[in-house]
TrEMBL record:
Domain of life: Bacteria
Name the UniProt record assigns to this protein: Iron-only hydrogenase maturation rSAM protein HydE
Single GO biological process annotation from the record: water-soluble vitamin biosynthetic process
Xref: NCBIfam families: rSAM_HydE
Keyword field contains Transcription: no
Species name: Marinitoga piezophila (strain DSM 14283 / JCM 11233 / KA3)
GO MF term set: 4 iron, 4 sulfur cluster binding; metal ion binding; transferase activity
Cofactor(s) the record lists: [4Fe-4S] cluster; [2Fe-2S] cluster
Keywords of this entry: 4Fe-4S, Iron, Iron-sulfur, Metal-binding, S-adenosyl-L-methionine
């Protein structure tokens, strides 16, 4: 029952496997609302009372990996590949900072064209010249590379474990090593990165138990940022035709995660917004405290199809909606939005 969950949380500041599973399986609308409310209160009291906007730049859709769910996997030759030139990446980042973003996420496929040296230069500039946090979402690179990126000024890394169920992990990742993924995550934590991980919800063969295991795994490995998105069946991939993940289960997972890892930074994901637009905002009242806005120029972004019909989470539109819903923005972001509004949104959009 909800009251048992609350009492357990107040005593231990986390949940156990059984309680996580109970929340994941909740279907009763009233009980769900109660749990979401508790997760929301915990978010606001133990993290921040505002939603953090982070800007994502999808700088390359080249990828040399074959993940079975992903639309930019190397075998997919139906998409147009692009790489954003270094100078342009910097310009986009600078513009994002001027608009009011405090974290820039560099995301891309696993693309060796961008050497460690190039990435170091980009990171250094965004962190030291634009005075902004840099988060990396570039898949697997060598430990040495991640060490250098840290020294160059990156403070965060997102490296989703995707699923902790080894059998499913191996089925959907023909060319990835389960043990290495976990070892690398642990190494990132050891290096002092604010380390992010996460899973896909609704993979073929996955159960609520697997998702409970994912949450416990992230807690036990000191993961501080948690990205959990529903599976979205995607054209020209081996998982094309499998059913999409459940948006309701995703919300339950957010609430359960908030009560298990109370201090986490947890985005309301674009994948959830793609399945059900309103759920992305409902998530911001159910345990999530971050939203990633896309600042990739449209001519590139339209080809970054990691899954079908990926929506564009736009900066101003998202900020406005957050305020309309009675939620808050961080002081810097809010100030910049007000200024932009006064000037008739004259920034590049
Ligand atoms: N459905 C849901 N999430 C996906 N990702 C990639 N493809 C899909 C898909 N079809 C997610 C993975 C990856 C992140 C960049 O996007 O979790 O880590």
């Amino acid at each position: 029952e909800v009251s048992e969950i609350i009492n357990y949380f107040l005593k231990y500041f986390t949940l156990d496997y059984e309680k996580i599973l109970w929340i994941l399986r909740l279907e009763n609308e009233n009980k769900k609302e109660e749990i979401y409310k508790v997760a929301d209160i915990v978010t606001r009291t133990l993290t921040t009372d505002f939603i953090t906007l982070k800007g994502i730049i999808e700088f390359t859709n080249y990828c040399n990996k074959s993940c079975n769910y992903c639309g930019i996997r190397v075998q997919n030759n139906c998409i147009k590949r692009y790489r954003i030139p270094e100078e342009e990446i910097l310009k986009i980042a600078k513009n994002g900072v001027d608009m009011g973003l405090t974290t820039i996420i560099l995301q891309g496929g696993e693309d060796e064209y961008f050497s460690d040296e190039t990435l170091e230069r980009i990171i250094y500039k965004i962190h030291h010249e634009y005075k902004t946090s840099v988060s990396l979402s570039i898949g697997e690179r060598s430990k040495e590379a991640y060490k250098r990126f840290k020294e160059a000024g990156a403070s965060k890394v997102l490296l989703k474990h995707e699923t902790i169920n080894k059998k499913i992990f191996n089925e959907i990742h023909p060319d990835k090593d389960y043990e290495y993924r976990i070892e690398l995550l642990d190494y990132l934590v050891y290096l002092g990165y604010i380390t992010g991980s996460g899973n896909i919800i609704g993979l073929p063969g996955q159960t609520e138990k697997d998702i409970a295991d994912d949450i416990i795994f992230m807690r036990d490995h000191r993961i501080k940022m948690i990205g959990m998105g529903p599976f979205i069946s995607t054209h020209n991939t081996p998982l094309e035709g499998y059913p999409d993940g459940s948006a309701d289960l995703t919300l339950n997972a957010y609430a359960a995660t908030r009560l298990t890892i109370p201090y986490a930074l947890m985005p309301a994901t674009t994948a959830l917004g793609t399945l059900k637009r309103d759920y992305q905002f409902k998530a911001l009242r159910s345990g999530c405290n971050v939203i990633m806005v896309n600042i990739t120029p449209d001519k590139y972004r339209k080809n970054y199809n990691i899954y079908d019909e990926k929506i564009k989470v736009e900066f101003y539109e998202t900020a406005e909606r957050i305020l309309e819903e009675g939620l808050k923005l961080s002081p810097y972001t809010y100030r910049r939005i007000l200024e932009a509004k006064r000037n008739g949104y004259s920034y590049e959009r």
